Amino acid sequence: MSITEEILSAKEKKRILSSSSAESRNKAILAIRDELVANKEYIFSENQKDLDNAASLPDSIRHRLLFDQKKLKQSLISLEDVASLSDPLDKVLEKRSLCDEMILKRVSVPLGIIAMIFEARPDALIQIVSLALKSGNVIVLKGGKEAKNSNRALFEVIRKALRKTDIPEDFVILMESHSDVSEILSLSGIIDLVIPRGSNSFVRYIMDNTSIPVLGHADGVCSLYVDKDADLEKAVKIAVDSKCQYPSACNSIETLLVHEDVSESFLPLLKAAFEKENVVMHSDKKAFSLIGGIKIEDDEEYRMEFLDKEINIKVVSSLSDVFAHLERYSSHHTDSIVTDNKETARVYAESVDSADVFINCSTRFADGYRFGLGAEVGISTSKIHARGPVGLMGLTSSKWILSGCGDVVSDFAEGRRKFAHKDLL
Amino acid sequence: MSITEEILSAKEKKRILSSSSAESRNKAILAIRDELVANKEYIFSENQKDLDNAASLPDSIRHRLLFDQKKLKQSLISLEDVASLSDPLDKVLEKRSLCDEMILKRVSVPLGIIAMIFEARPDALIQIVSLALKSGNVIVLKGGKEAKNSNRALFEVIRKALRKTDIPEDFVILMESHSDVSEILSLSGIIDLVIPRGSNSFVRYIMDNTSIPVLGHADGVCSLYVDKDADLEKAVKIAVDSKCQYPSACNSIETLLVHEDVSESFLPLLKAAFEKENVVMHSDKKAFSLIGGIKIEDDEEYRMEFLDKEINIKVVSSLSDVFAHLERYSSHHTDSIVTDNKETARVYAESVDSADVFINCSTRFADGYRFGLGAEVGISTSKIHARGPVGLMGLTSSKWILSGCGDVVSDFAEGRRKFAHKDLL
After folding, report:
1. Residue B17: CB partners within 8 Å, gap ≥ 6?
2. Phi and psi (nearest 5°) for A286?
3. Beta strands in A292-421 (DSSP E)
4. How far is residue A275 from each of residues A8, A164, A258, A311, A314, measured CA to CA in Å?
5. Which of A409, A416, A417 to probe by mutation at the B interface, max B CB count within 10 Å?
6. Are B119 and B143 in contact (CB under 8 A)?
7. How many beta carbons lie within 10 A of that of residue B12, not counting itself?
8. Do B351 and A96 touch (CB under 8 A)?
9. H-helix or E-strand spanning residue B204
10. pLDDT over threshold 90, residue A377
């Protein structure tokens, strides 16, 4: 069967999944947990094949690729966590009496079919399957090719688990080649959402090559602005955390803006802290005169996403400068301000048009788990559907259910009845 | 200035608009009302030019094109209504304490720049401008070419009104040619949403020719299912309203499904009612044997959107037949069931995956005003962002605002602090 045929045949399973009870979906998640434990030796041995093939790759990739007892344990906990989250489906989002006995409800429903393309991380496959199952969606998966054997083994074990449950095993579909990915990008109207994770250029490629809605973000050019009314000690601490706590994450900062009134006192403190962390500093003209570093020659450098211990530093003379800089160079993912001036904080929060706008805290908090969303599907910089860290609700849509008693519009159009519109929620 | 240059220069006005108070946006809406009254003779005379040019067009088009004292009065009421609606911006949608003093909020914000392409109806221009203003969005407009002079006059009057307010007049931009429309469709990343209204093929054209998110619907193939446990008298009343109350509306039915157990008793009643209304009936084999009509020869006919007093009638033998029919032929806009069996109604509401799923009432209720949304931007059959009738909230996005006190992620990653995640809403 081609991948398109597989997806078309799964389409019929959508209804079973969307009308399944939360209980049976949670039971299926726990069945996957049990089956992973029962088949762990098989999974470990398949993972070893991938590790052997990846012998020449960097440690960071091999570390993500590894699926051992420890990663298994984390996955089991994560499955239990997802099973215990509240049901994202059938939530009543609006409820209104229109007139007499006519009751209108808007309830959450699954999106339908989601395609997810992600890194070479076998544990990610398990998490994605559990989130799709929890939210009642058919899931079409493609993991990084380095994890091919591990993913195939996990996929088989998951399907084996599902055969013991009420959930159709083919709600999860595995893509194994790049041509599968190209093929599914044309299935607009069949696949409801594509979620790509990976490099900037990869996400951009997906966005440019499909008319299916895409959830995610390509760039993560985040910033920290140190205001003239900032507590400078806090500012240093936040800057170090935002840059160094995990430099390759999308929510790490690439740019530090500082108000000229405090630049002379702040930048030497920052330099000392960054030098301890071996951060390479790129400085604009004013910053260069104060702390040296590599001179920024071209404003286009502010678009750079280093994803490493490297940063652009720029001195600004007003909040308007900050807004103008962000409007031009921010990817509107996460931007943060350090200030003790409440009015400045308010204007900043109101004026900066980014998915996450932070005050006096590290940009690294931009994350579904830290936000308390239970689980994270990804971070969206789109303004449509879901913005910022996306939890299970981002995998749902809604429908309107109107229940009447023989009601017709002509009675209202001709003045015999009138709408009352009474909110019931 | 080209249309792209106009839009790029308005981009800078986005921040003024998004941080404007509800009061100043409402004042601007009322200023437009006053300016329309002050300039009504000019608007009427420009509208007369359009009517003269449209002398050979059908009455239905000329009726929509007309902007007279009566339409003006309706527009003034509609402006007052929109001004009095609650502010869709700065609504706190989620609020959570993450740990100690760290407070996370998700608040509604404008989408940014919206392009709307609509029919030759001058009153629609006024309504669209008021909805965009209320929701703090820059609006790029294109009305049907038959209304060219009227739209230009209204646009001038609206800008004149805005010059007397805090809202920048160029938040509203008028497109006057088809080439303007082609040009803006390429402004992905600048325009946040396109809302096309008009014929099926026009909406489809827009959807196929832009990577900007599109809100709307191309097809409106809606259905009514008369169950074996239906009150047949109510069913006839609902069928007549759903088909005849306004046949050219997208929420009118094109298909009537009837359970075989009641087809012999129901279809003659339906036929009598439809004949009084001059409805042309297309019947499947079983329906034909009972009430005649035009025989349906090819199942593809079920995709037909008549938009007129014409209907397809099909006899089914189970709920599964209904689901299979809808999965294949419904445009998932609005589908309704007539039944007195509560369990059947429940299964139908749960299983039918359409934007609007109705029980014992006319499909014609699928409308933002009737739903109590205050004002309707359009009806979306997309599962992303907004589904079904879309009110002002469909023109908003949200952002996350996290306010802390020097908090860093390393404290949490290294176990010195723990997330509490306490919902505050």
Report:
1. B110, B136, B137, B138, B167, B168, B171
2. -65, -45
3. 294-295, 310-316, 334-338, 356-361, 378-380, 388-390, 396-407
4. 56, 57, 18, 12, 17
5. A409
6. yes
7. 14
8. no
9. helix B200-208
10. no
Q: Are B219 and B251 in contact (CB under 8 A)?
A: no
DSSP H helical segments within A170-305, as ranges?
178-184, 200-208, 232-244, 260-276, 285-291
Interface contact flag, A96 B371, Cβ < 8 Å: yes
Could you tell me what percent of chain A has a pLDDT over 90? 87
- What b/e string do you get for B329-346 counting C-beta neighbours within 10 Å, with b at 16 or more? bbbbbbbbbbbeeeebbe
What single string gives the DSSP state of each residue in B257-292?
A: EEEHHHHHHHHHHHHHHHHHTT-EEEE-HHHHHHH-
Rounded to whole angstroms, the Cα distance separating A38 from B271 reads 63
With CA atoms as reference, report the closest residue to B75 among B121, B38, B127: B127
3-state secondary structure of A298: coil
Which residues, at least 6 apart from A131, have a Cβ–Cβ distance to it below 8 Å? Answer: A82, A375, A377, A392, A395
Residues of A in contact with B245 (CB under 8 A): 408-410, 413
Q: Give the residue among A157, A147, A146, A140 at the shortest CA–CA distance from A123.
A: A147
Q: How far apart are CA B209 and CA B113, in angstroms?
A: 18
Q: Tell me, what's the pLDDT at B201?
A: 87
Q: Is A8 helix (H, G, I), strand (E, B) or coil?
A: helix
Q: Chain B: residue nearest A408 by CA?
A: B362
pLDDT category, B1, cuts 50, 70, 90?
confident
Alpha helices, DSSP H only, in A85-121? none
Q: Angle at the Cα of B316 (from B310 to B318), degrees rounded to 5?
A: 145
Of A389, A382, A397, A376, nearest in space to A207 by CA: A382
Residue with tokens 């008369």: B226
CB A375 within 8 A of CB A383: no
Question: Which pair of tokens denotes residue A319?
Answer: 């909040």
Q: Are A116 and A140 in contact (CB under 8 A)?
A: yes
Mutate to test the interface with B, among A188, A238, A333, A383 (most CBs of B within 10 A): A383
* Contact between chains at A383 and B102 (C-beta distance less than 8 A): no
Contact: A419, B370; criterion CB under 8 Å: yes
Number of residues that make up chain A: 425
The count of C-alpha atoms lying within 13 angstroms of the C-alpha of A348, restricted to the half-sphere facing its C-beta, is 31
Residue that has been written with the tokens 């947990």 in this structure? A33
Contact A371, B98 (CB under 8 A): yes
State what percent of residues in chain A have pLDDT above 70: 100
Of B192, B207, B383, the CB nearest to A112: B383
pLDDT single digits (tens) B59-92: 888 999 999 999 999 999 999 999 999 999 999 9
Instruction: Judge whether B64 and B118 are in contact, CB under 8 Å.
Output: no
Nearest partner of A146 among A66, A206, A200, A42, judged by Cα: A66
* Token pair for A2: 């081609």
Strands B92-99, B138-142: pairing is unpaired
Residue A50 DSSP class:
H
pLDDT per position as a tens digit, B195-237? 998 888 888 899 889 889 999 887 889 999 999 999 999 999 9
Long-range contacts of B45-54 (CB under 8 A, 24+ apart): B46/B149, B46/B150, B46/B152, B46/B153, B47/B122, B47/B149, B47/B150, B47/B153, B49/B149, B50/B120, B50/B146, B50/B147, B50/B148, B50/B149, B50/B150, B53/B146, B54/B146
**What are the tokens at B33?**
């009302």
